[in-house]
Amino acid sequence: MNTDLGGSALFYLVLLILPISALIARRVPILRIVLSLASWALIIGLLVIVVGQRERFDPYLQRIASVLKIADQTVVGRETRIRMAADGHFWARVTLDGVPRRMLIDSGATVTALSTRTAQAAALDVRNSAFPMILNTANGQISAQTATVRELRLGDIAARGLGVVVSPAFGDTDVLGMNFLSKLKSWRVEGQTLILEPHHHQDFT
């Protein structure tokens, strides 16, 4: 009796497995395609997120961004557009007398400020002003020297003869201040994008 019950159970099990197997065999290729597409979409989505937040990660990810053309600074028509960084600030890629630098755009800074290292790299003629230059910063008052940048380029914008202050107290941070922004035709923030628009003549002094 046990043998008959075992055989019957096995028979019904086979009958159940056969149609299920046939059904799976038909659907597996479709499932594979769907899963493959979903996996690639997930990988690409994660890559875009990581590259978009690359300031938090290794600097080598900037190369990936350039390859994928995920630009944080672009020129559209006569406007230069800068996307907000992960730290909530706007950082511009500029050249100072041919030396590339990443500068913080700060409308609260009256004058453009450079680190000693940047001033040396650009070979600026740094000197003491006729009167002591004292600046009020978040860390208190600091003394600074002055210099003039022959040409600062940001996107299609070129500023010539731009006055700057230089101090080791700035650390490694370079700041674009209002003496640069005030020379533009306009500047505004739309969403998470800073838009800089020069006058009809792009170069200004």
Automatic annotation (TrEMBL):
Q: Provide this UniProt record's keywords sorted from A to Z.
A: Membrane, Transmembrane, Transmembrane helix
Q: Which CDD domains match?
A: retropepsin_like_bacteria (cd05483)
Q: Transmembrane stretches, by residue range?
A: 6-24, 31-52
Its GO biological process terms? proteolysis
Report the Pfam families cross-referenced here.
gag-asp_proteas
Q: Which SUPFAM superfamilies does the entry link to? A: Acid proteases
The GO terms describing molecular function are:
aspartic-type endopeptidase activity
InterPro entries with a match to the protein in the record: Aspartic_peptidase_AS, Clan_AA_Asp_peptidase_C, Peptidase_aspartic_dom_sf, Retropepsin-like_bacterial
Q: By its UniProt entry, which NCBIfam families does this protein fall under?
A: clan_AA_DTGA
Q: What is the protein named?
A: Peptidase
Q: Which source organism?
A: Sphingomonas taxi
